[in-house]
């Protein structure tokens, strides 16, 4: 049987997470586990691991004690899978006379069982602030790792008590986020970190949890034992009219009996102003003014700025950025707090009538979704799934749905409604595949289904998974369809698949130097240059480089290695960035060799025997890369005294104070570096007379940096400027020229200069020493440069060996599994499937008939003292 993954070793921990035993199916004398099932769920982030063990005890048992003594409640188990550690709490134990059945969960008991109380915020807060204020992180050893919604804010209310896990899931939903839990253990088994990574929810622009896989799953592959496809039309609708029952008295027009009037004016700058005036019950008048401006951006997205002046005196500004695919993100600022506590006490509906109309096109340029007035529509879905028999038999083709949401603003209502429409405009297609697939929770993979007519290729996502280590054929994976790539085998499919293959190609770095990587006596230097490739294509656009040597980090396009800075060996880590994202990293080893001091002449020794080969050295420690960058801000009255508090948003500036900017770089080895920048906020001066109107302001249009070498450090070079750093002789000067060109076509030029160190005076010639004896053979030299690439080989084909068993040399009693039969047959071809045709196999007898007992042999000479031979077995990939 084909093995799809290695059965892991289970480590058992006590309540303090100290290791107290192991369960290893790869060792015959260890306790083994069976009937295992590992369940993972994308929606909850939960992970449940169940398994059974026998209660037998042997003298060679690795645990050295009965399993019931260590496999008990409050203890933990862990294992490694795909280079990641998974830790579980033993949550439930079922015991019989012969075995234990255990259910283990990946979350601590406080998160599962402890309740979170009702909570309400009157101001916008971030995800982290809500988690801290509701004690979701404070007492569970849980902290936030990756946080893609760090800049988002929401004004939320949770009206009932619920478990901390349920509250955490509800909070993630409010921030349109997905999550995963990660566990990190120390070498002794104790807990190092328990983190939650928060990602923007998958929507076509953001990927969420998991990875995008390039290999297509063909339904019908032989290791997939059974496939269930469900197509569900229940709940489908193509028109959505959303409303909200939140009490927002200033957003909607008042009833006629209140004497309301609504005036909408289009302004010269393209914005619209909507003014609502109404009478209150005490006879006074109130007014709300909403100004909305929509700007189309070059990338196809739109920016909508909505400024609302409410009757209570407050002013709120909401900025919504909507991508070309319709996904939107809103941020809200309170420009002015309320000046009165006036409340009409009326419950009113928020709808989409005051929001600008928009449309979203699919990859073929067809309008797939649009907003008109207070409703959202899905026109393509309406044609495919009309509300009656056909679109030709009726004038109203829409399947309408009215939904009330718990939204406080029109922007929030629109985002919630559009998410629902995308989810329900098309039938839900779900695949449940039995058998092993090498995927993880959240992964996205193309699936080709030949049973559809025409053939259907969709991109599906792993939402649930059941893995069985001891019997991989019992594994099961559930995929939810969220994107149809094509409904026929057209050129579009081939183009799309080619794009997917191209996207999956990794980034690689190639390094070159002008003077090698080995130095002698701390003398010399070498210029290191790096080139970034994606597949075989060189990448130029938006590439920057980061060089790290012995903890010193340098950002630039090349790096100058100086031998005087290297003691014995050093590792230079080179990382490539596209924008702010690290896409590849590599390392080169730099070596400095010093001449030893001259020793006294020694007597020539006898020739020694050849020594044994030395063992491998200890593996070097892992290199480090940039894990995250966090920027925060704070105000201080001093340039030297740090602020007492830091925030992710720039605080309100106070004249005469200093704005501090703190940047924390965290690396993959969990070390960090911190940098600060300070800016003085000037106080107002005395009022002066009105000056003459100034000319239009200018901005920087471009910045150009060039370099040149010169023998002078005071007179700038008149020629020789280039965009690459030249080689500068010792004692000469490297000049750097920066030219800023402004939008009014004026420019400024700045210079900086650095001197290269001069070569020291040559020392007196020493006396010639006596010739010493020949030394021992030196260490192996450094690895040479990569050789010239050989010619491209022909396309390879995978060869398969097929084995079967039979009762005789003609294939009688043919079997592919019964190894007790007397004959074994083999053949080789390029087809993965085993043939059932006995004539294809070459048969050989491998079990002989039992012979008659022979006569007693002559006694041999007495043997030497015996030594017990041992058979050693190991396994490797």
From TrEMBL:
Domain of life: Bacteria
Bias (Polar residues): 260-284, 326-342
GO cellular component term of the entry, any: extracellular space
Region entry Disordered, spans: 246-284, 326-345, 594-621, 756-794
Family annotation (Pfam families): Collagen
TM region(s), chain numbering: none
Bias (Basic and acidic residues) ranges: 249-259, 597-615, 761-770
Record-given protein name: Uncharacterized protein
């Amino acid at each position: 049987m084909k093995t799809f993954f290695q059965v892991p070793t289970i480590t058992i921990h006590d309540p303090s997470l100290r290791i107290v035993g192991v369960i290893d199916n790869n060792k015959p004398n260890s306790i083994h586990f069976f009937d295992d099932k590992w369940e993972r769920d994308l929606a909850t982030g939960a992970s449940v691991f169940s398994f059974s063990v026998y209660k037998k005890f042997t003298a060679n048992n690795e645990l050295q004690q009965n399993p019931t003594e260590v496999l008990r409640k409050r203890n933990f188990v862990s294992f490694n899978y795909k280079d990641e550690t998974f830790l579980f709490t033993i949550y439930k134990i079922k015991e019989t006379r012969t075995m234990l059945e255990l259910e283990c969960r990946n979350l601590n008991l406080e998160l599962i069982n402890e309740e979170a109380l009702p909570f309400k915020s009157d101001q916008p807060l971030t995800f982290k602030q809500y988690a801290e204020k509701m004690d979701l992180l404070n007492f569970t050893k849980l902290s936030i790792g990756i946080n893609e919604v760090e800049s988002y804010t929401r004004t939320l209310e949770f009206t009932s008590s619920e478990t901390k896990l349920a509250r955490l899931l509800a909070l993630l939903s409010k921030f349109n986020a997905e999550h995963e839990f990660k566990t990190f253990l120390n070498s002794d088994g104790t807990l190092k970190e328990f983190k939650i990574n928060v990602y923007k929810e998958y929507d076509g622009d953001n990927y969420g949890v998991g990875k995008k896989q390039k290999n297509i799953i063909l339904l019908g592959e032989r290791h997939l034992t059974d496939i269930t496809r469900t197509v569900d039309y229940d709940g489908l609708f193509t028109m959505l009219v959303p409303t909200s029952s939140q009490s927002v008295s200033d957003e909607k027009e008042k009833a006629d009996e209140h004497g309301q009037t609504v005036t909408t004016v289009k302004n010269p700058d393209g914005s619209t102003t909507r003014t609502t005036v109404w009478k209150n019950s005490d006879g006074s008048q109130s007014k709300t003014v909403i100004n909305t401006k929509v700007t189309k951006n070059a990338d196809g997205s739109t920016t909508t700025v909505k400024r609302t002046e409410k009757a209570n005196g407050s002013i709120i500004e909401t900025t919504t950025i909507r991508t070309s695919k319709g996904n939107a993100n809103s941020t809200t600022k309170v420009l002015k707090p309320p000046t009165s506590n006036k409340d009409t006490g009326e419950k009113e509906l928020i709808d989409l009538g005051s929001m600008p109309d928009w449309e979203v096109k699919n990859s073929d340029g067809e309008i797939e979704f649009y907003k008109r007035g207070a409703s959202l529509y899905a026109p393509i879905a309406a044609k495919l799934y009309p509300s009656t028999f056909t679109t030709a038999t009726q004038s109203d083709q829409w399947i309408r749905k009215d939904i009330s949401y718990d939204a406080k603003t029109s922007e929030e209502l629109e985002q919630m409604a559009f998410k629902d429409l995308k989810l329900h405009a098309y039938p839900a297609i779900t695949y449940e595949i039995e058998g092993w697939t090498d995927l993880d929770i959240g992964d996205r993979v193309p699936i080709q289904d030949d049973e559809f007519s025409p053939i259907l290729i969709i991109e599906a996502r792993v939402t649930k998974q059941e893995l069985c280590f001891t019997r991989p054929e019992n594994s099961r994976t559930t995929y939810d369809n969220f994107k149809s790539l094509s409904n026929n085998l057209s050129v579009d499919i081939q183009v799309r698949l080619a794009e997917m293959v191209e996207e999956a190609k990794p980034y690689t770095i190639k390094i070159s130097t002008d003077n090698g990587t080995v130095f002698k006596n701390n003398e010399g230097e070498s210029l290191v240059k790096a080139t970034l490739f994606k597949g075989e294509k060189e990448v130029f656009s938006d590439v920057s480089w980061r060089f790290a040597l012995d903890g010193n980090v340098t950002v630039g396009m090349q790096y100058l290695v100086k031998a005087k800075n290297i003691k014995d060996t050093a590792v230079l880590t080179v990382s490539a960035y596209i924008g702010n994202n690290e896409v590849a990293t590599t390392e080169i080893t730099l070596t400095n060799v010093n001449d030893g001091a001259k020793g006294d002449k020694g007597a020539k020794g006898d020739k020694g025997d050849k020594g044994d080969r030395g063992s491998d050295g200890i593996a070097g420690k892992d290199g480090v890369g940039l894990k995250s960058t966090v920027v925060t801000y704070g105000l201080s009255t001093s340039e030297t005294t740090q602020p007492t508090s830091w925030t992710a948003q720039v605080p309100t500036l106070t004249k005469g104070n200093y704005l501090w900017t703190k940047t924390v770089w965290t690396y993959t080895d969990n070390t960090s570096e911190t940098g600060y920048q300070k800016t003085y906020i000037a106080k107002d001066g005395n009022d002066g007379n009105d000056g003459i109107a100034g000319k239009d302001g200018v901005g920087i249009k471009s910045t150009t940096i060039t370099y040149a070498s010169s023998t002078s450090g005071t007179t700038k070079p008149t020629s020789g400027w280039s965009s690459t750093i030249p080689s500068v002789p010792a004692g000469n000067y490297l000049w750097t020229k920066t030219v800023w060109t402004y939008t009014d076509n004026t420019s400024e030029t700045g210079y900086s200069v650095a001197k290269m160190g001069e070569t020291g005076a040559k020392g007196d010639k020493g006396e010639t020493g006596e010739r010493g004896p020949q030394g021992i053979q030196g260490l192996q030299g450094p690895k040479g440069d990569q050789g010239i690439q050989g010619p491209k080989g022909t396309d390879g084909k995978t060869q398969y060996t097929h084995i079967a068993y039979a009762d005789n040399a003609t294939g009688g009693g043919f079997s592919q599994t019964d190894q007790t039969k007397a004959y074994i047959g083999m053949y080789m071809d390029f087809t993965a499937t085993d043939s059932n045709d006995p004539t294809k196999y070459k048969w050989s007898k491998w079990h002989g008939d039992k012979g008659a007992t022979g006569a007693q042999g002559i006694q041999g000479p007495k043997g030497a003292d015996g030594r017990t031979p041992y058979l050693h077995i190991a396994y490797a990939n």
